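Methods: holo model generation. Sequences were used as deposited, without trimming of termini or removal of tags, and paired with ligand SMILES retrieved from the corresponding compound records. Each pair was processed once, and we did not select among multiple samples. The sequence and adenosine-5'-triphosphate SMILES for this entry were:
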Amino acid sequence: MRLDGQGGRLRRDMSKGDAAKPGLTTGKERVWSEEEKNILGSPNESFRKLLGGTEDNTEGAGRRGKAIARKGDTLETLDHVGDNWRSEDRLSQPMNHHLTVGLCAGEQTSPRSTCEAERCRDGPEPLCVGSLSNVTISVAPQYGTGQKMGLSSRPRCSAQDLWTIDSGIGGLKLTVTPPETDVVPKSGDHPRESLLSRRGPPFLLNSDTHSYAIPRLIVTQDVSPKRCVPSSLSPQFNDTGFCLDVPLSGEVESPCSDSGCGGSPVPSLFLRKLSSSSGLSSASSFEESEDDFIGSDLEPAGGLMVCSSDEHGASSTSWRKLKNMVHWSPFVVSFKKHYPWVQLAGHAGNFKAGEYGKILKKFCQCEQQCLEWLNRDSLRPFVPGYYGVVEKEGEAYNQMEDLLSEFDSPSIMDCKMGVRTYLEEELVKAREKPKLRKDMYEKMIAVDPDAPTEEENRQGAVLKPRYMQWRETLSSTATFGFRIEGIKRADGTCDTNFKKTKHREQVMGALEDFVDGNKNILRNYLTRLKELRIELEKSEFFKQHEVVGSSLLFVHDSSELAKVWMIDFGKTVRLPNKQTLNHRAPWVEGNREDGYLWGLDNLINIFSDMVQD
Ligand SMILES: Nc1ncnc2c1ncn2[C@@H]1O[C@H](COP(=O)(O)OP(=O)(O)OP(=O)(O)O)[C@@H](O)[C@H]1O
Ligand SMILES: O=P(O)(O)O[C@@H]1[C@H](O)[C@H](O)[C@@H](OP(=O)(O)O)[C@H](OP(=O)(O)O)[C@H]1O
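and the model returned the structure below.
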């Protein structure tokens, strides 16, 4: 259930300390919705933004309520009495932490017992839960850097304190959930779906109207993500196929998999225009307006898909993106520059254009938590900057750095890393609840009509792990621990026909073509890959995560600037019980090794050979 200001809720007026008194007025509790992100308070508080709260509309009681608001870098709880909101407490919100808010209001006959039953006690910010559900607000990283969070004016969460506040709104208490919680949703949950439809995103930034976060209030019963336990079962899937009598399905759930879109990589390009900035304008001139986009959602990605390529080769494009450029010397001069945004691989419909230099990728909790962590990890220079979650047209997106923005007519390559492309938990799920995939069968026979077993031909479908394993062995994933997913050359042509690029010579040929024989670019890539390896070997994040389906994005341009970043953390999951991986050991189901570093070693070897040749 989401608090959206629509539904009123009967509640007992606990005012004047007389909580248990029968016959108290009942009224409607109102919760501020996203649309009610008013600027509150007096003029000198005009930067305060309401994040969420409750209002007691008890008849005769006047308007009373409590809310959480943001002002500058601090969060505040606000008391609302009569027509005015006043600031009550200031909270320093730790970066990247989620706030859990307990609304102590509702039909409460025994506040004391509720208070005791829940974790209302002295100590660091009790989670104060009344008869209403918890509310989760998440806060964007830019919210502030304080380490401790204060509480409302009632630091001791006694029953008396709780239920005698103001007009009877039981209190609005905050607690911090550390970010180091496990990120894997409980088995059976599709994280993206569960987040968006079951309990809503933990926080949404409204990209259209604000340059900073305006979280929504979301009611949730369960604020801590669940983890799937690795299977102790031995592998049952192999290349010989699956002979299970199972229903056909368009989807096998997996973290952040977007099966609904079919799963086919669809190169697409955003065609967009950024608002022009004028001469000596300030930072605001960098902000783009959605209205400035050329065209709108003509294809599922939300941008314009003007380039596509298929299994059979390249296609050229007529795309372009306009970007504001500001030169700071000797004068600030702005002009528009054309550069492309291309989605080389991945699920169609996953991306939208974001603010200046940023892109939006469909929200995925795994990815969000990884990006948050990675942005604080030693791997920071090798991942896109992360800018929180934004909402656009009713959907949640992770906002991240557009890695193409610093390049001129970039050449791009996506390499999927690791020896396997499915999580161990996907195997477990597929065993427990096998679902046949007709779409995957069709993709399979399009590449190799002889690949399916007789059984699979009869069924006209395959299981996802079977398809994934077939893709791995057909390409260089199984033999080298990486595979090329797609290449976009400087001339705009795209190629995603690498499903059968398996052998070293084939890989080298593709790389040679990608850099157009330019040894300097190869050398620059090699340097960057080696730097990445050093950081990966040091990284705490990397040690503690099973990294599956993640890619390295290679980008260079004619200036010979050549960079590599890690992208796609939709299937990167934290290991339980302080387990760590070395990312080079062979995978045996249960050990969760992913072969990422082994793949990187091989990639580095290939680049080294090519540089020397
Ligand atoms: N931060 C970024 N900057 C620029 N381009 C990006 C960025 N992230 C992704 N892309 C582009 O989008 C493509 C797909 O990205 P990504 O792998 O994250 O998507 P996905 O839909 O999760 O993929 P998959 O289906 O493999 O899980 C990349 O190949 C790249 O072309
Ligand atoms: O590249 P192909 O041959 O099109 O195959 C897809 C690819 O393996 C994706 O990585 C995978 O998504 P995940 O990595 O998110 O599982 C997708 O599964 P899906 O269709 O279930 O989304 C596959 O269909």
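The two ends are 62 Å apart (CA to CA).
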